Amino acid sequence: MILGSLAIFSNDLAIDLGTANTCVFARGQGIVLNEPSIVAFNTVTAKVEAVGTEAKAMLGRTPTSITAIKPMRDGVIADFEAAEKMLGYFIRKAHGSRRWVRPRLVIGVPSEITQVERRAVKDSAYRAKASEVHLVEEGMAAAIGAGMPITEASGSMIVDIGGGTTDIAVISLAGVVYSRSVRVAGNVMDEAIANYVKREKDVLIGERTAEQIKIELGSATPLTIPREMEVKGRHVLQGRPVTTILNDSEIREALAEPVRLIVQAVRNALEQTPPELSADICDRGIMLSGGGALLANMDERIRLETGVPVLVAEDPLSSVVLGAGKMLSDFNLLRRVSLD
Question: 25: which residues sit within 8 A by CB, 6+ positions away?
């Protein structure tokens, strides 16, 4: 890795290429961009109509000539061309008016990413005009971003619940002792809610509505104050617009299986952790990050089922990109933790 004398004034970027959202951290500036991982293509002209926030606003509302595509699925690239266009757009936007910039990139990826998937991320980044690309496990990046003491000779455990994957890592001496990536996270929760509303209420809702229900009513254990909300959708049989009322108890039932699978993955991780490090984790607790950490009482549910204290990161949505961003100015750490 060549470090230029002008590294301080460099264009280095850290990217959390998420299934739901992409966050970009610029060295010396912090987080400069956080937008949905969506690209809107015009199928007639084969041109990109919108990316990110603008493209999300089009979801479910596009004419037949425009298709809104999510390039990422389960934390990895599902549509190579769309991912390249999206990355290029975000890199240009992060650099503002400066053109002909070829940044170094640090990108967070799921821990169980295959060689083929790893290659796809790198190729997309290079085609989007990156000069160097370094991949780091999302669990490791999230632990650094959450301020965990990963370089010490003691165990730290992080559970990063994103949009496409839940990444669990046990870290000691800047190395990953155990890592697991489960493809159950925020998107699966949204699907579970949409399926429940269709099955129990005979109402079809879109993914944006399902996500809103999750944010407002979702919980992993019963709430002290019950909640309910009015939801608009389309009747399955009659095809007309209808309104239905949902409460937190119903949504907890809808989310029961995804939540159970995540908790089970955490329990498996604790069982696989060496005894000495388990003792450290019992003392320090498990750190929760990612959007799923914001699900009401998720920390309480994991604590109840594992008996281990659970903490939520200060900025759970940004932990991965903040950790990757710290590596931009600590190349020794980047060398130790990158997947290259």
Answer: 13, 14, 15, 31, 32, 321, 322, 324, 325, 328
Binned average pLDDT, 10 residues per bin, the chain of 340 residues: 40 89 91 92 87 85 83 86 89 76 88 87 88 92 93 92 93 91 94 96 93 96 95 94 96 97 96 92 94 95 96 94 92 85
Tokens standing for 138? 């999302």
Return the CATH class of domain 186-256. alpha beta
């991949």: which residue's tokens?
135
CATH of domain 7-38+73-140+320-337: 3.30.420.40
| 72: nearest Cα among 15, 121, 136 | 121
Compute the half-sphere exposure of residue 215: CA atoms within 13 Å on the CB side of its CA. 7
∠ CA 120-25-146, nearest 5°, is 100
Backbone angles phi, psi at 151, to 5 degrees: -90, -10
Of 126, 34, 31, the C-alpha closest to 84 is 126
Q: Do domains 7-38+73-140+320-337 and 186-256 have the same CATH topology?
A: no
Q: What secondary structure does DSSP assign to 271-311, as a single string?
A: HHS-HHHHHHHHHH-EEEESGGGGSBTHHHHHHHHH-S-EE
Note the pTM of the prediction, 2 decimals: 0.88
Could you state, in order of their start, the residue ranges of all structural domains in the chain? 7-38+73-140+320-337, 149-184+258-314, 186-256
How is residue 256 written in tokens? 């029961």
